[in-house]
Amino acid sequence: MSFDVDKTVKAIKDMRIRGALDIAIASADTLYGVVNSEARDTNELLSMLRDAGEKLKSARPTAISLPNSVNYIIYVAERNKDLALDEFREKLSAEIKNFINEQKNAIDKIAEIGSRLVDDNDRILTHCQSDTVINLLRRVNEEGKEIDVICTETRPRYQGRISARLLAKYKIPVTLIVDSAAFLAMKELNVDKVIVGADTIYANGDLINKIGTSQIALFAKELDIDFIVASESIKFSPESVIGSKVVIEERPAREVIRSHIEGVEVFNPAFDITHAEYIDMIITEFGVIPPQAVYSIVREKFGWKLR
Ligand code: RUB
What we know:
Layout: H1 2-13, H2 20-35, H3 42-57, H4 65-79, H5 85-115, E1 123-126, H6 131-142, E2 148-152, H7 159-169, E3 174-177, H8 182-188, E4 193-196, E5 200-201, E6 207-210, H9 213-223, E7 226-230, E8 271-274, E9 281-284, E10 287-289, H10 294-301, H11 303-306
Parallel strand pairs: 1-2, 1-4, 2-3, 4-7, 7-9
Antiparallel strand pairs: 5-6, 6-8, 9-10
The protein binds ribulose-1,5-diphosphate.
Residues 18-22, 63, 128, 130-132, 159, 197-199, 209-210, 270 line the site of ribulose-1,5-diphosphate.
């Protein structure tokens, strides 16, 4: 078992698996592998699952979708710990498959709902690379609306290039800009809407997403451009109800400068916080909500955790 778990942990750490939704799905998939590996009895399998879950959760700290999916699967496992091994396996395998399907359905539901918010001839700006946002834009394009997209390159790891490449592949007109051109581009190129993904959303509606998101939200406010977040509810934080915050990941200096510069320190946070007052709406699989409505969805969806 540990081979697959370690492999997933390494792939998440190295960012070969990245983006909050993919991280959550890969973790659930890995736990599915653990559920179906050799064990003497249910107790042993449960403890293997707990160990694997802890390892997976430690892979990256900021996307709450990762602990949310692991915690949910462990919760279901614990509730079924009295089952005999085969039954336990069967039950948990079905629950994990179900969970993964829910996530896949959620991203499509968000595209369906979100596409209604995008108008013909809209110019959209996006930051980083979010599968949820790309899927939504793809759907808009498939519906025949003419849109074009501006992607920030998203230093230091250039996920914006991945977005641009994907959009070009789907034949959506796309322009890549350096991060520091965001304000000028939003103003001079008449951006209509900003749409970004999410790593974590707190119960008070604050968003944590790729570093640089918050300044784009400030620009959007200044220029009166809608700032929209596309996020599955798996990225909502139940822990935030009791005041817990996620750790903002700091990544190595070598991502910013190729070699050490004598006397120069590098600060390389991977995410930042955009406060709820800068967010016009959040598109979820349950519908379009204002950031103030996150709390009630958290209470409903994560009741199992909050109890
Ligand atoms: C990715 C990032 C994405 C969110 C949402 O950061 O900030 O906007 O994770 O992505 P990193 P998705 O590249 O550091 O993982 O919609 O695919 O879940």
